[in-house]
Write a structure and sequence with these properties.
The chain is of the alpha+beta class. Among the domains are: 294-518, Trefoil (Acidic Fibroblast Growth Factor, subunit A); 541-728, no CATH class. It is 45% helix and 11% strand. The protein contains 21 helices and 14 strands. It has helices at 17-31, 44-55, 68-79, 101-125, 130-141, 144-150, 156-177, 184-203, 207-226, 233-265, 278-282, 288-292, 458-461, 503-511, 524-537, 551-555, 579-604, 612-633, 649-669, 674-703, 710-715, and strands at residues 303-309, 318-325, 340-345, 353-357, 378-383, 390-396, 404-408, 422-426, 443-447, 453-456, 473-478, 490-497, 561-565, 572-575. The strands form three sheets. A six-stranded antiparallel sheet has the order 9-8-5-4-1-12, with no helix packed on it. A hairpin with a 7-residue loop joins strand 6 (390-396) and strand 7.
Amino acid sequence: MLGLLKNPVVVTAEINVNLVALTVMGLISRLWGLSYPRAVVFDEVYYGQFVSLYMKRIFFVDDSGPPFGHMLLALGGYLGGFDGNFLWNRIGAEYSMNVPVRSLRLLPALAGALCVPLAYQILVELQFSHCAALGAALLILLENSLITQSRFMLLESILIFFILLAVLSYLKFYNLQRHSSFSGSWWFWLLLTGVACSCAVGVKYMGLFTYMLLLAIAGLHFWHMIGDQNLSNVSLICHFLARGLALIIIPVAMYLSFFCVHLTLLYRSGPHDQIMTSAFQASLEGGLARITQGQPLEVAYGSQITLRNVLGKPMQCWLHSHTNTYPIRYENGRGSSHQQQVTCYPFKDVNNWWIVKDPGMQQLVVSNPPRPVRHGHIVQLVHGITTRYLNTHDVAAPLSPHSQEVSCYIDYNVSMPAQNLWRVEIVNRESDTDVWKTILSEVRFVHVNTSAVLKASGFLSGASLPEWGYRQLEVVGEKLSKGYHQSMVWNVEEHRYGKSQEQKEREVELHSPTQMDISKNLSFMAKFMELQWKILTLKNEDTEHKYSSSALDWITMDTNIAYWLHPTSGAQIHLLGNVVTWASANVAALVYMCLSLWYLIRRRRKIYDISEDAWQLWVSAGRICVGGWAVNYLPFFLMEKTLFLYHYLPALTFQILLIPIVLQHLSHHLCRSLLLKSMFSALIIAWFSSVYLVYCTFSPVTYGEPSLSVTELKDLRWKDSWNILIRKQ
């Protein structure tokens, strides 16, 4: 044992100086002056609101995507000691002293900085020279648009980081496949691929495009493995299961975990939870939970209930009635039943209470033991305050003449008998004997006489009743009841077991809060499914933005975005790219596609201009770079949403990686003589110098300093379509 101590312990390590230098330069370019400007910059006004809600543990829904990116931004705020107290109401607002600006912007900046060494490593793993890899990294380093986007509390740099990490991890895994399958490093890079893909999707759904691309490439590579006679059937099955675990099961599990953490952190009720179902709202602390906690679970004959429409868009509303009647004649001359109005009311009110009555009995209280209402049972709904029965008949509704009017029946002693029997249909039942449950059950009320379904039609028409209906939403009996549209579905929100048979005592009871001892908790999967559905289907009204653009504008950078303007000087920050880099990326993509087509035609004629190894290298690079550009760009032509220039940055990143690939290919395979190679090298040096010169020229509007004069700002307007802000003298 002592003999081991005779010689010193020596640890050796290989350090890639290129990689270290690129990382340092990336950090300097993204972190320098990070807290400037100390004011809200463009979409920080949007993401900052969510960070504040995280700090206060208040639930929210963001229809732009999953919560992982928001949680990373909130992590920066948490590490900086942010208490969430700041009013994110306008771009340019000065941050108060309690806002840790540098901490909030740190994670996006770090992600943007690490994209530089990632670009270098990706080209190395694609088997290109270190010179080409260095060129790709420097182009990412000097790309003004990527610098701007990564220096603020925005998500694009984080998204691009995870996308590049996923690509690099898969390439490392694939290269290890040839000689060390199922080794520790093989498993590490394969698992990291799945983790990075799930993180990319968790930041923004745009990450799904690259994830699907890598799945397709992995599928193609496995297809080639099937044809390898050296691999046994058992080995192929193991490879298939390993890929399924790492690239599908783990990403799905991680995606679910993002929502699990999100829902665990945001346990308090807030302004956004009203679009969720009653069951979801009741699971949050405060708000509806304070009202519904401990209500009876099973609805019984004699139950006093409020009925909330499940659709909840554009606002939540409850089945409601009041003493006012429909006018004898409407404005268009049509007649009504002159019965008591039934509406959908968007506020909690004592007139929202109804009593579930057994048609065969007169009592309006719950018996002992309670008799629960089940799917398919026939009930009458008695309005709690006016004691009139919910009714519909063959009279046209006020705003929807093709549907039946719904009312509370008044006996005028005319030839219009009451038709007040309703069949309860539990839409989300597990069996035909399910009990109608508070909050959890979603039910339809089907009119026994006419088969019309109780429906809140005001959601779909967008119109409210006239003054005589107090601008409340229309409720109708929908004759065509195919399907289960959410406007036809209701759930019990507030519920108590009625105890008072006398009307005056019952009115006092209806005004008092409920206090019972049965709680209702949603499972995580139920909450996840509801929240995921809301994210996918909830769309804010897209309005034309001053800096919105079309996908066609992005390729030639015919647009820009003014992110920030100093309140007194000419200092400003714009999302503008390096013009030389953008143009070169377009040329590189065009050259790649033209050369690929030329090679394919020539190979079809059995003419091989380049070796098989060079061809495979060319094709594999195209799958990653051209494929990455295509999947991150072309889908925007199919999207009906407000688009901005920053949506193009993931696609642009892949296109930039293609530039040195094309340059190396041209140098190695088309420049045959030494003279041509020397001339080509000189052109590359001149071209790269122009990239650096443009980077320096636009640095003042990339970093926001130094302040430029009016003349200098006008000189930066290289295109008429660019909106450079000039203050009036």
